[in-house]
Design goal:
The protein is mainly alpha-helical. The chain is about 70% helix and about 10% strand. The longest helix is centred in the N-terminal third of the chain and has 47 residues, at about 30-75. It binds zinc ion (ZN).
């Protein structure tokens, strides 16, 4: 008798009777349990890698979004650099309010460009918290409309394809004629 406990299924087995076992890190696994354990480890590692990559991509996107926002503000206010107040506002909105750089960007675009408000008396970008939700609603609605339009366009292209069978019919007739000639 050489009883051991498989760490995967936690069942005891006699390794002198059960021949299909694997010794891994000083523990005895059933052969199948070892395969399952390895598959789990592999899956976990893959998920970890994917998560890491996702986070890296998110950070990279945030960096780009921040630069885009800063450039947009410079153009909007006609200034070569962001004022101390503007920088502090962005930092506060992102860190304390949970806004995103692209969200702030969209909000400023909504309020100053689309709504045509002047930047003349603006307190930096202090308007953002007051119209952020409105702007979000506007863009969400717009995105839904665009999605609906895309679906509608898809329907149209399906209808256009109805003409196709006629071409096939013509081809078939021609082929049949060709076969008849060959038989002659
Ligand atoms: Zn087992």
């Amino acid at each position: 008798m050489a009883l051991v406990k498989c760490p995967h299924c936690e069942q005891r087995f006699d390794r002198e009777v059960v021949k299909n076992f694997v010794l891994y890190k000083n523990r005895y696994y059933h052969g199948d349990c070892y395969d399952r354990k390895m598959a789990e480890i592999k899956k976990e590692e893959k998920e970890k890698e994917e998560k890491k990559l996702k986070q890296a991509n998110k950070k990279e996107k945030e960096k780009i979004d921040k630069v885009n926002l800063e450039n947009f503000i410079k153009d909007l206010f006609g200034v070569p650099t962001l004022s101390y107040v503007m920088k502090a506002q962005i930092k506060r909105y992102v860190e304390k309010e949970g806004f995103t750089y692209s969200g702030i960007h969209g909000t400023l675009n909504y309020f100053f460009v689309l709504k045509g408000n002047s930047t003349k008396n603006a307190q930096g970008i202090g308007i953002v918290p007051y119209v952020y939700e409105d702007a979000k609603k506007y863009y969400t609605k717009k995105a839904a409309q665009e999605k609906a339009n895309a679906g509608f366009d898809g329907q149209l292209s399906v209808e256009v394809k109805v003409a196709a069978p006629q071409v096939t019919a013509t081809k078939m007739t021609k082929r049949r004629v060709l076969v008849l000639e060959e038989e002659d």
